[in-house]
Amino acid sequence: MNRRDALKAGAIAAMMAAIGGGVYFYGSKSHEGGGVSATQPFQPLPSSKASYVILPKDGGFEVFNTISDSKEFESTDASSAIQYAINKLSVTGGEVVLKRGVYTLTKTITLSSHVSLIGENGSDLVVVTNSDGVVIPENSQFVRLSGFKIHGAGPITQGALIRVKNHVYQIAISDIEAHDYYDGIVIEGAYPPGDNWGIFMERVHVYNSLHDGLAIVGYGNTYFINEVIIAESSNNCITLRDTADGVMAFENVHCFDSVNYSLHAYNTDGRLVQHKRFIAVNFEGLSTHPKSVRIENCMNIEFLDVEVAGMANNGIELVNCSDSRIIGGRIINNSLGSPGEYAGVYLENSSEIIVEGNSIYDTNMPGSKTQGYGIIEAGSSNFNVITGNVLRGNSIAPYKLTGSNDVINANIT
Description:
Blueprint: H1 3-18, E1 51-57, E2 60-65, E3 70-73, H2 79-88, E4 94-98, E5 101-105, E6 109-110, E7 115-119, E8 123-127, E9 134-136, E10 141-152, E11 160-164, E12 169-181, E13 183-187, E14 199-209, E15 214-217, E16 222-233, E17 238-241, E18 247-256, E19 263-268, E20 271-275, E21 293-298, E22 301-304, E23 307-309, E24 316-319, E25 322-327, E26 330-332, E27 343-348, E28 351-356, E29 359-361, E30 373-378, E31 385-387, E32 397-400, E33 407-409
Parallel strand pairs: 1-4, 4-7, 5-8, 6-9, 7-10, 8-10, 9-11, 10-12, 11-13, 12-14, 13-15, 14-16, 15-17, 16-18, 17-19, 18-20, 19-21, 20-22, 21-24, 22-25, 23-26, 24-27, 25-28, 26-29, 27-30, 28-31, 30-32, 31-33
Antiparallel strand pairs: 1-2, 2-3
């Protein structure tokens, strides 16, 4: 680890320790935060009827439970040992506990309903499969992944460190560090039964992904994502695709140094709630900035009290969207890639958008400002409400609006 990476790791660790509550995305400057506490929708897992402990031993692994079963695996490949313990619990449910040590995986680990994979401090899963590392299969329920590191080694061209399949509910992913793979975490979670929460994710750090840090694909599920840091993704920090009819509650989400977008969402016709600061940060020494926070083909999107800063282009882009809201945010110092060209908020072919009570400006000194406009409308954008925003301090103009039926009032320009 070089000096820059060490400094970054220390900064991120300190941030994780200090996080209070809210959603975060970072772009070119650091911001301190705090805020509301997340209400945890995840239900406690049923009491475990059994558990297996896996202990690195003499170049292999010992697998044992608290009752009678004990089995030794002489291979340095931990895949068979871990899968053996999971399969033994597939009927009764329980926990597979990884004692401190290194666990090399040459095969994908597949969980079962009511079975959790729990690491003790220092548990390190090294994935060399060039496929998925750990999979929660379709129709799973009450599964928890917690307390371990998981990362790739060797040439990686596909797969995710953690993949969650369709029709799952009550899945918890917490206290995980995942890095150096193609995708960090991929969730394909569509339509859990009834009104169950689908995915609960908290205190997760994903970095150095060759593609996306976090990708969520699938209709109709519910997600609660809190205290998550995603850094250095070669594509997007977060990708959301085809997530209609679901509910996504993001709090305290931080995005650093993605090459493409901080967040790229499309076909999101359900409720996507970004609550409490949405930012984007570029560490000193990196030449690229995330393009923007971009939402396409959307309806009923809410950005509540978010912060977006340091984007190369526009701060927040809504394209082909309707019936959505950007309220109470701080959207500053964007358009770093082309100073003066882009805005804090960009609306293209979008209608019935409420932009209210935001601070949308550039805080830099005259001559150093980059954000050209507070708000830009383009295409057929119309019937939008622009009210109560602070829009002074942009380098070109407070706004450039084209909608003949817009409501524009009480803005500070």
